[in-house]
Structures
1.
Amino acid sequence: MKTKFLALMICIFSLTSCEKQLDINADPFLPQEGPPHLYLPQVFYAMAEGAMFDIRFIGRYTQQWQSTVANENYDRHGRRPLNGGLAASQTYRNHYWSIGSNLNQIESQSVKRGFGAYKGICNIIRAYSWLISTSQFGEMPLKQAWDNTRTKFDYDSQKDIYAEVQKLCDAGIADLSSPQGAIDPNFASGELLFGGDLSKWIKFAYAIKARAANHYSNKTSYSPDKVIEWVDKSFASNADDAEVKFSTSTTVLSDFFSFLGPARANFGAMRQGKTLVGMMNGTFYPQNDPRLTQYFNPSTTGSVGSLEAGKGLLAGQIIPTMYGKWIFQNNTPYPIFTYAEMQFVKAEAAFKKGDKNTAQIAFFNAVKANMSKAGVTNALADDYLAKALPKSGAELDIKNIMTQKYIALFGHPEVWSDLRRYNYDANIFMGYTPPSTLAIENNGKLVQRCLPPSFSEEDWNTDAFRANGGYDIDYHTKPLWAFGSLE
């Protein structure tokens, strides 16, 4: 009996001690909430991290690179298995957690401190995150998102999500055009995307609006004039590009380096795809693209090799990794939105409108901007434009616009949005050929979406996930509303 009593007293004492220890969380000398500028760097990293994590898989769908292993699942347009964790779904997690939850804190802490500008920036970042996420996953919880009283969340339509993107951008533009409240003296030190330049944030918002509106290219509601208007209000040159930067130190831990670089070792089993290399090595154009050796490491023979989807690295085939080139370096910034992309968007919209002269100017602006970004000299760029590409609006076609955009957006998931909008058409994207053998779960159809994280949707949000068709074996082949013709 004494032993039981002693054990009970120990338990009570332990609980009491635990409560006293937890009381230190209310210590007035320890900060309980961080100032808003300290949250920003993590948000910016998460904006790029989702894309960098997930393009390991999406890049195989788009055939910008392929696995060195034959019959690899994603090379064949397959999906991650159910209960398969986080593969190809980091963007989803970041949207609600690393980005979304931190934005909630930034907004809350900036209001408490009377700081302006943060609200506008948070709206624009949230719009960006909604757009890249719904482009990858389709329907998502919108109206109930971040409701901490809930444990289950209903999915909302893409139509509602795209409307929210435009609404958030407009709110952000209005707020930053006339910021209310004081400017945080630490704002610029935490604002690592544009260095505190609010005018560039407004341009970024218009870039998001233009990309989102251009996703409607198959709908009768598509407005080329609106797309062009918003592009013209967005980035004016490469200097405006939205890029997430990484450490330039050679001594810091690998966590400070780009996810795509050799220090992180995430792309060692990938090599450039036959489709992309074919667009650049003279197969479809009358001369080699000068970006070819800026993007890729040639072999000892001087040629740039490539892999065909699903075939893997063939016996005797030696192809260097992509490391050390383009964005596959430890310290190279990751571009999330660029002037070149905006000019391609303008070219496509003007072409569809029938204004081919405007389309031609934007097309050349886009190609030359990307070449400059890739380190191509002006002389080589001008030579390629003059000898390889359509020289006038009358000669320009949608095939050249979209193929050159595919090249320019190497390493970016937005390429997949374009492929799906045009139904993976080889007449639009020169040389794109679907895998000869698709994954068995595809039922003969090409991939259209990724699955969200299993640990949030399959484990905890089961009913909504099932109602949205998530447990269907071919759910990943279900077309997205945004890219189709339905209004």
2.
Amino acid sequence: MEIKILAFGIIANIIGKSEYTIENIYQTDELRKYLEDLYPRLKNLKYAIAVNLVVSSENFDLTNGATVALLPPFSGG
């Protein structure tokens, strides 16, 4: 199974790229742990995960070909 990762803002800076694919990750909680183990700076950052344009704060099942966006904290004015 393969999913596409899109990273924005500071998350893209931390990861070092804004788009790539990964395999064999089946849920958003698993993805978050994988990314935070690989990039420890993400552990201190509150960020949202959107799967196929749907933002969810709960664990979400991923499907083959899903697009996952890593969204940094937003500030408004």
3.
Amino acid sequence: MKVALDTNAYSDFFRGVPSRVAVIRSATRIHVPLIVLGELRAGFAAGNREAENLATFESFLSRPRVSVLRLDEETTEHYARIFLQLRKIGMAIPTNDLWIAALAIQHDLELCTSDGHFQEVDGLRLC
């Protein structure tokens, strides 16, 4: 199984949430969207243990089965489609989450998240 992590999934994993630990440990590939990278770094900077959290995160990113997903032109096409689909049903989700969903769909990944609004995105698989 190949997965993309939302910010809350990474946090759940390191807090030891059993369901999240099981999914991440069994994944063959773990992808961290660039947007999640930014959200996590911002959270670390605002917290009391920035250096410790950043060191743990850097160690996580250095694992062979972990990679960072970057945006490209194709991502913008998925973003636009998702934006329009949600607009038609009157659903707004945070802009960062639109980008995360676009990357997961583009790369055919299951998105690990606790955010319920992702359930509204057509074609997005969740774990």
4.
Amino acid sequence: MNAVADLIPHSGSMVLLERIIDYDDQSLIAEVVVRGDGLLGGDERSVPAWVGIEYMAQAIAAFAGVMARQAGEPIRLGFLLGTRRYGSNIAAFKAGSTLTVRVKKIMQDDNLGVFDCRIDGEGVEITANLNVYQPPLNDTPEVVSLVENVAG
């Protein structure tokens, strides 16, 4: 199985997924070990449960990366447009805990997608639908430039 960092447009400490467990043409399952480094909030003991949205988004990015690799295409940048139906039974993840992140394609066209997402772990049940956008391959440099200018 490919390393997660080879499948998503993130690098270094921003790669939050530990590994890809399984995938098919409709879904992907990944594993996360919750880090207590405070990168996205929290401290050495816990991380806010809303960070699960980023875990889900990275699992979707990994799914897109796997599909791109299978099609002989480059890994492309994608954007989280929104989250619907977010439900969580916890307020925070325990640092060091292992979580399973599942993403399943509900619909996807060339640029837009909706995924049913779930995070499970010991005492953890989180669900959400994520809406994502991936610019066309030939527009990606302009979109990256725009994002860099806005963020810059």
